[in-house]
Structures are given as C-alpha cells and as structure tokens.
Design a protein that fits this description.
The complex is a heterodimer of chains A (about 230) and B (about 180).
Chain A (H helix, E strand, L loop, with lengths): L4 E9 L2 E6 L2 E7 L1 H11 L4 E5 L4 H17 L4 E4 L5 H9 L4 E4 L1 H5 L2 H10 L4 E8 L2 E4 L4 E6 H10 L4 E6 H5 L6 H10 L2 E4 L1 H4 L5 H10 L12
Parallel strand pairs in A: 1-4, 1-11, 4-5, 5-6, 6-7, 7-10
Antiparallel strand pairs in A: 1-2, 2-3, 7-8, 8-9
Helix pairs in contact in A: 1-2, 8-10
Chain B lengths: L3 E4 L7 H9 L4 E4 L2 H6 L3 E3 L5 H11 L1 H11 L3 E4 L1 H5 L3 E2 L5 E2 L7 E4 L7 E7 L4 E7 L1 E4 L3 E5 L2 E7 L2 E4 L7 H12 L3
The chains are: A alpha/beta (about 230), B alpha/beta (about 180).
Chain lengths: ~230, ~180
C-alpha cells in the first residue's frame, strides 16, 4: 500500500485561485502557479485544481494555467471542472496535467471514463463524486440526483477510473476536514485526503499539519529539504 | 554538455521531464531522430502512452535501433516508467508487445494491491519515497531496487530504468535526476 497522500485542492475561477464554501462567496487567494509551488514546497503530495467557473471562454485560460503549473511543479496534479469531453481531457493532459477529474460529465455520459482511460490509462482518470444521504449531488451540491453513490462509484471504477474522489456534502456543510485529527481519520480508511480550508486559511501551516498527522500514526512520505 | 535527448514516442507529454531538467539547469530536446539519440551524452526514454503505440513509433522512426546501438556502446540511457518497461524483451500490455530488448525480462500486469498502483512509496535499498503511477511491472534479473515487493529499478551496463517518476517525485526525484546527470 503506497503512503497516505495529502492533496491541497485549489479552486480556480478565470485563471485565479479562489476559495469558497459551497462555491459561493469566493475569496481570492492568489496566483495558481505561485500557490502550487508554495504548497509543493510545503509538503503537498499532489495537487488538485478545480475550475469552478469552467465556461467555454475559460477553457483557454485554464489550459495556459495547466501548462504554467506543469513547468514549475515536480509533484503530480489533477485538473477537474470543465472536463466534458475526450477533447477537453486531451487538452488538459497534453498541457501537462497528470490526471483529469470528471464529475457531472461522467454521470451524464459514463463512456467518457473509458474513452479517456483507454487513451491515457486508468491512472489519468479520477471520478469525483459529491455524495450526501447516499445519493450523488452535482453542480457543487446544488442538484440532488437519484443516482446511488456506491453503485455509481463501482461503475466508475469498472469503466476505468483509477481513483474515486469522494466528497461528503454533509461534512462540507459542517465545516469539512477542520483539523489534523479529522484528516488523519480520513486517511485511516482512504489512500489520500483532499484538503482545502485547513490549508488555505493557513498556507504556511502545511508542514506542521504533516507533522501532526504523522504523530497520529499516519505514514506520509519523508520530506527532505529542496535541493 | 550537449542537450539531453528526451525520446519522443509520438504521443503523450514530455513536458514534466523537460521541466525537471530545466530546474536542474540542463537543456533538453524532444526527438526520435536516430542521429540525435546516438550523439547525445544522455538519452531519457520517458513514460508516456501505451506500450504498443510507443514501440510502433520507436521502431518506425529508427529510434529503437539507435537505442540498441547506444546501449552496445555503453552510452547512458535512463528509462522512466513505460520507458523502463520498453527496454525489456516483452510486455503483456496491449495484448503482448515485443520491447527494445536491451535487458532480459518481461512486463506483467500487477496482481496484488490496488491497481493502478498510484502514489508515493518507499524504494529500497535507496531509502527514499518516489511517486508511482502504474498497472504493469517488470520481472527482470537486473533488478536493483524494489518497492513493496515490486521491481522498481533495473540496471545493466549504461542502462538505468526506474518504474517511478523522478520528474514527479519532488526533491527526492530531483536529487535522483541530478545523480543520473552527474557523470554526463
């Protein structure tokens, strides 16, 4: 079993990193490239960029963000939001992202999962599931579908998703992963934890968070000084 | 030194490998030109795409033969992920594909643990954690490092192959690449 991973999630709107609760009330926290480098240096094992606006006119902006990030980052990163077709996935991956994350587009057309997995391998496809009360939610939690969470996760995996990114809508509503103990609890039952407000409110606190989580018995990768 | 040649398979992205080299102050070119491959001081065979399309491209461009000649001469080649796997004789991927055949051994689908094997894992005896993303793994008599029982580095003559992605392995990966570049 590979080591547990801590994955800061950066919400991107119009090429800038923003932070919001349930995607409403955005607060600008900066430049994607600078933040990516900062979190990478602080001990992020991986990063996720979520394009939360993802309008057609934003896709070119996001592509250039991906390329700029790929040029400075020496850890893997995933891009989600706005990946609605194989062409979108090609654009993102060939710009330097390691994986794309599919959400409502995969729900609308599950064959998208297998099409991308065939082209780039399962490790390049993440299916993100926003779950609450046993069913899948979409559009940042605003739309409740009738699709049951567990069967959908199993179908996504069988179609070639290399990983499932599960977000609990109810946990987000009550504040999300708010402390090292909560993150450690998540890492006892999963491979990786996506972290947002816990690091965005104190970006310099990532090395400390890693230490706290390790003190709680979770094995993370050993960090050395950057050369 | 001359530019490092990052071998082009005709698919996928080589951006991260080149970015890591740039970070280390080393310039690189992406090419499948046999002349460039034979003349460069270091050639990197990166890990992108699928085994069959990669081999088709390497054979049709003459890059595969240039790599064999280079290996015979003892000129350094670094294989990363799929690039390591392609250096062996055979892979089970894509219904079975013959590799470049620099080293004995073959490549099989992982059967234990979660597949794809994704994330950071310790590599022994090196004592560092590196980033992995693979569903297939090598069986090779020239194994020099393992991770959780999986062969993750092979070395014979001037060929060094690693299953992990040094270009995605943070400071440990950069330090590894720097060691690979140091004799050049």
């Amino acid at each position: 079993m590979p080591l547990a991973r801590l994955i800061p999630c950066l919400d991107v709107a119009h090429g800038r990193v923003v932070k919001g609760v349930n995607f409403v009330g955005l607060r600008d926290v900066g430049d994607p490239v600078e933040l990516a480098k900062f979190y990478s240096d602080g001990g992020a094992d991986e990063l996720v960029f979520l394009d939360i606006t993802a309008t057609p006119e934003d896709s070119a902006t996001m592509t250039s963000v991906v390329a700029d990030v790929a040029d400075v980052l020496e850890i893997p990163f995933t891009v989600g939001g706005g990946v609605r077709s194989v062409e979108d996935a090609i654009r993102i991956i060939e710009s330097g992202a390691d994986r794309v994350s599919l959400n409502s587009a995969a729900l609308a057309d599950p064959s998208l999962i297998s099409a991308i997995a065939r082209r780039y391998g399962s490790q390049a496809v993440v299916v993100a599931i926003d779950a609450g009360d046993g069913v899948v939610h979409t559009h940042g939690g605003r739309v409740v579908t009738s699709t049951k969470t567990i069967p959908w996760a199993i179908e996504a995996a069988s179609r070639g998703a290399g990983e499932i990114l599960l977000t609990s809508i109810s946990v987000i509503a009550s504040g999300g992963a708010g402390s090292a103990a909560h993150v450690a609890d998540a890492l006892r039952i999963t491979d990786a934890a996506l972290i947002a407000s816990i690091v965005h409110e104190n970006p310099a606190g990532l090395p400390g968070l890693r230490r706290e989580i390790q003190d709680l018995g979770i094995q993370l990768r050993p960090m050395k000084e950057l050369i | 030194m001359s530019d490092v040649v990052v071998v082009d398979y005709g698919a996928g992205n080589t951006r991260s490998v080149r970015a890591a080299l740039t970070h280390l102050g080393v310039s690189s070119v992406v090419s499948s030109d046999p002349t460039k491959i034979s003349e460069s001081e270091l050639v990197i065979l990166p890990g992108v795409g699928s085994a069959r399309s990669a081999m088709d491209h390497l054979e049709s461009t003459g890059a595969a033969q240039a790599l064999r000649n280079r290996f015979e001469k003892g000129a350094p080649i670094l294989g990363i992920c799929l690039g390591m796997q392609l250096a062996l004789e055979h892979s089970d991927e894509d219904g079975g594909v013959d590799g470049i055949g620099l080293l004995s051994g073959s490549v099989h689908l992982l059967t234990e643990g979660r597949v794809p094997r994704l994330g950071w894992a310790m590599v022994e005896p090196w004592g560092d954690a590196f980033y992995f993303a693979h569903s297939y793994a090598a069986t090779c008599p020239d194994s020099v490092a393992t991770s959780e029982g999986v062969t993750v580095a092979v070395e014979r003559g001037a060929f060094l192959g690693v299953q992990f992605h040094p270009e995605k392995s943070g400071s440990a990966g950069l330090a590894f690449l720097e060691r690979c570049l140091s004799p050049v």
